[in-house]
Write a structure and sequence with these properties.
Helix content is about 35%, strand content about 20%. By secondary structure, the chain is an alpha/beta fold. The protein folds into two domains: about 160 residues, Leucine Aminopeptidase, subunit E, domain 1 (3-Layer(aba) Sandwich); about 300 residues, Aminopeptidase (3-Layer(aba) Sandwich), CATH 3.40.630. Strands 7, 8, 9, 10, 11, 14, 15, 16 and 18 form a nine-stranded mixed β-sheet that branches. Strand 10, helix 10 and strand 11 form a beta-alpha-beta unit. The longest helix is centred in the middle third of the chain and has 25 residues. Bound molecules: ligand BES, manganese (II) ion and zinc ion (ZN). Manganese (II) ion binds next to loops. Ligand BES binds next to helix 12.
Length: about 500
Amino acid sequence: MQARLLNTAPEKAETDALILPIFEGQSTVPAEAAALDKKLKGAITQLLADQEFRGRFMELVPVHNLGNTPSKWTVLVGLGKPTELDLVRLRNALQAAGRVLRKRGHRRVTVLLPKAVAATAGAADLARAATEGIGLSNFDTGSLKTRHEQAVTQIDTLSIIGLDGEKSAAAAVKDGLVLAEATNRIRGWVNAPANAFTPTVFVEKVREAVKGTGLDLKVLEVADMRRLKMGALLAVARGSDEPAKMIVLRYGGGRKGGPTLALVGKGITFDSGGISIKPAQNMEMMKSDMGGGAAVVGAILAIAQLKPKVNVIGIVPTTENMPSGKAIKPGDVVTGSGGKTIEIINTDAEGRLILSDGITYAVNEGATHIVDIATLTGSIARTLGPLAIGAFGNDPPLMGLVRRSADLAGERLWELPTWADYDGLIDSEIADIKNATVPWAGATTAALFLREFVDGRPWVHLDIAGSAWQDASELKTVPKGPTGSGVRVMAHLAQLLADR
Ligand code: BES
Ligand code: MN
Ligand code: ZN
């Protein structure tokens, strides 16, 4: 997709569909669209007066321009109540509109941001939201269908009217494009079935993706993991016939000795639960258990284009979690690369095991800030659903930056506690710690486990078990399927760390 700011009058825009966002309760045509409405012989005025378009959130009414303007269609899109609109909802509304327009075969889309909407946020934030909203609509889950029932038109040109003259907005359009495209790429990976996306394929995809980016890629093989005594990652990998890998990506934008942000992502390409096997219901969803690892790659691909002055290292331990005669068993004790002994209570708590060796690797590589991201617990999915990332940490300043990053990214993120009051929950009778414990506070206890490996460095853990995949047909705001959760948060975080 191409995207740009435009200062043409809307009635003169040459486009397939001109999106006109309107708030609920607005009964007159926005001034910016008055001339357009006139050309359409008052059609928009009429629709508003007759309440055939009320501006309810995500309401969409296309009006044929009947050759009265260079654009073919005017599309009224409802933004709901002004008090409820934020940049997350603006992205969602535009993503939904973009999806409808694609199905209708429109390739060139123009978004008009009237003053009433443009006044709700800064120009750069609006430009990114509009670009990302439309950009993210260019994604489908049916990539392996041999017969397409729906049109597969992509929106290939986006123009935004209403933000011209703002230098920061033009730059934000470029950033939004990079971020949306990185997000869509990894949504495709998360959507891929586990038989077509093994750890080996994961590595191949990353190798292809980094070509020409200047990123440095290193892949640790099983022999390397043995040498580095990555007993936790190797323990999970034992049950699978697919060889485990650890992807290490480096972006060197900062000075030597400057801050180094480590992004560590869970790359379980299929999580059967292992010997503590999962129930059959919904097990197919566990192809998406590499969503954190994919998000790390997506973020670092975006970072390579955004070029912040900071060093970033992306670390993705990747393996299947399978039951077999070789698989680890509940009660087994393994030793991670940091030397801690871990009692395995539940082989389905595998994400924290592979992440622990990834985090230790980050520490040994000199990371000054650590962010890990993982589809880690059913607990967070039950708590927040697909609507938000759960965040945990040990350092308020870094958490503050992560929260700001989420705001810039237009991703919802909610902090949960790791108070010292929880101490003792992961103590093991036989070993240093255990990988599963009480049946409550599941997302927090997972975070406590990971905290054991960060060597006291500023760290934030992002649990995306809910937000990585939207599967509720009741929810209208986010399309079903992989969301690309976390990519944009981490890319913004790298920029904020650089700007300090
Ligand atoms: N991959 C799952 C978490 C998950 C659940 C992701 C639902 C997406 C949707 C993770 O490996 C897991 O199985 N976690 C267990 C941990 C428990 C055994 C301590 C869980 O949350 O039930
Ligand atoms: Mn599991
Ligand atoms: Zn898992």
